[in-house]
Amino acid sequence: MNNMLEYRNYYGSVAYSSEDRCLMGKLEFIDDLILFDGTTVEEIELAFHDAVDSYLEFCAERGKEPSATFKGTFNVRVGSELHRKAAVAARKNGQTLNDFVKCAIEHMLYEDPRAHEKPVHHYHLVTRQTFREETQVEFFDPSHFPSDYDQARTEYVN
Q1: Has residue 67 been placed in a domain?
Q2: What InterPro entries would the database entry show (predicted)?
Q3: Is residue 8 domain-shared with residue 53, that is, in the same domain?
Q4: DSSP for the chain?
Q5: How many domains does the chain have?
Q6: Quick check: helix, strand or coil at residue 107?
Q7: Is the pTM of this model over 0.85?
């Protein structure tokens, strides 16, 4: 299921309000707050198109540059260990960290057949413990990682 609308390179999200018994939407990925609503799918789609058109007309009338939906840069918080591993891997490949991350994103979007499936967690935790035996903790599901990570990472804890 997809609750995103697209029109003229702008995106809108849609949610249902049971309290108001209507569909409500918001233009996403822009700095301005633009909302729209409707009671049917056709109405919400039309309201979204009208919201985008009105926003662009408003900006043009005032000589304001409309918010770019995407500027091509963003910050990602990955934790210090993953950051270090990515930087080392990038250096070993003769790439900048930026190019390394860009390639990883491109891989997930264009090469990985799971890219368009519903997002899933890229790890799972399985524990098995009996009295006086070691506990096996398996951290990574190898099917979710590139070939470098095809073997599961397993750590044994006493």
Answers
A1: no
A2: Ribbon_hlx_hlx, TTHA1013/TTHA0281-like, Uncharacterised_HicB
A3: yes
A4: ---EEEETTEEEEEEEETTTTEEEEEEESSSS--EEEESSHHHHHHHHHHHHHHHHHHHHHHTPPPPPS--S-------HHHHHHHHHHHHHTT--HHHHHHHHHHIIIII-TTTTSPP--S---EEE--TTSPEEEE---GGGS-GGG-SPPEEEE-
A5: 3
A6: helix
A7: no
Residues of the domain holding 151: 120-158
34 inside domain: yes
Return the structure tokens found at 116.
Answer: 């368009």
- Please, what are the averages of pLDDT over each run of 10 residues along the chain (158 residues)? 87 93 93 93 96 95 86 86 92 91 88 58 37 38 41 35
Considering the domain boundaries, does residue 10 fall inside one?
yes
